[in-house]
Amino acid sequence: MLIVVSRHAHSVLNQEGRVNGDPTVAAPLSEEGREQARLLGEQIVHLELDLCVHTRFPRTRETAEIALAGRSVPFEVEPLLDDVDVGDLDGAPLEDYRKVKRSIGRKTPFPGGESLDQAALRYARGFRAVARRNAARVLVVCHEIPLRYALNAAAGSDLLDGPPFHDLPNAVPYLFDAGALEAAVARIETLAG
User: What is the pLDDT of the chain when averaged over all its residues?
Assistant: First the structure.
């Protein structure tokens, strides 16, 4: 099994420097993001895909639709890979989010939301569900944090936030086989459990 995982393309919230953990908030791709999604499609155009998995956030679906335009690939929603529920911080500037994140650590939930470790354990379940789908080649379009956690866990890091991976670019494909993704899942569970 081959799993291609990408962060969604640049959204208007990225442009504005605001956080969003609520999938019902409209945050379409920016003009730059639409171009990034098109380039993602060019990078994977010669890869036959059996399935595309995306989160409940419209920016992940929009990225996938642009990247796979003209291709007959079924889409499925995987809520377990949704962005971190930042609760009362939804829509806040990124710096405010980072300040609260530093002050509360990984175990304490964001006010009205979930903790980073709760999100990490949810991501582990989501990636495990992807790895166990009946598909040989899957594109997953999710968010920076679940992808960062999977990459760092796969690399054997002792920290989910890195190193070696921290600030991941939008709409860039990262490849896992099922075994590597399962190993990353087990590491995420160890580090966040």
Answer: 97
Q: What angle do CA 29, 35, 41 make, to 5 degrees?
A: 105
- Structural domains of the chain, ranges and CATH numbers in brackets: 2-192 (3.40.50.1240)
pTM of the model: 0.96
Interatomic CA distance for residues 15 and 33, integer angstroms: 10
23-45, pLDDT tens digit by residue?
Answer: 999 899 999 999 999 999 999 99
Q: Which of 111, 180, 170 is nearest to 150 (CA)?
A: 180
Q: What is the separation of C-alpha 152 from the centre of its chain, rounded to a whole number of angstroms?
A: 13
Please state, as a whole number, how many other Cβ atoms lie within 10 Å of the Cβ of residue 80: 19
